[in-house]
Amino acid sequence: MLELKPNCECCDKDLPFNSIEAMICTYECTFCKSCVEEVLSDVCPNCGGGFCPRPVRPQTARRKGVGIQFQPASEKRILSRYSKDEMRNFAALVRGIAPEVR
Fold first, then answer.
1. From what superkingdom does this record's organism come (predicted)?
2. Rounded CA separation 76/91 (Å)
3. Measured on CA atoms in the order 12, 40, 48, 3, is the torsion positive or negative?
4. What confidence category does residue 51 fall into, taking pLDDT thresholds of 50, 70 and 90?
5. Domain coordinates of the chain in residue numbers?
6. Separation of alpha carbons 90 and 80, rounded Å
7. Which of 63, 59, 76, 60 lies closest to 3 in space, CA to CA?
8. What pLDDT, in 10s, does the model give residues 54-95?
């Protein structure tokens, strides 16, 4: 099941389970839309992949046992081990390559 991380790994902005600003890579690295666009240039600093919007987990259990109250979002905050400058430099090396061929 998708882990809904509570914050941007770059700027530490809160990204609650229903945030439409949350972006993830294939490894579920989580960043806010602003950092993906302005700092990362759509390049995950951890794996080099691209980003897509993180799905929103339903607030209401419309099916038995399925919804945020049954599968809660993570409370563990994660920050990248890379500085913003390191992220920007890595993105500069990779951003010219389309995500599907990286």
1. Bacteria
2. 26
3. positive
4. very high
5. 22-96
6. 13
7. 76
8. 999 999 999 999 999 999 999 999 999 999 999 999 999 999
Q: What is the C-alpha to C-alpha distance for residues 44 and 57, in angstroms, rounded to an integer?
A: 23
C-alpha 63/C-alpha 61 separation (Å) is 5
Locate tokens 């995950």: which residue? 44
| C-alpha to C-alpha distance for 22 and 8, rounded to whole angstroms | 8
Neighbours of 1 (CB within 10 A): 5
The answer to whether 17 and 56 have CB atoms below 8 angstroms apart is yes
Per-residue pLDDT, 69: 94
What integer pLDDT is reported at residue 85 of this predicted model? Answer: 97
Task: Provide the residue type at 98 as one letter.
Answer: A
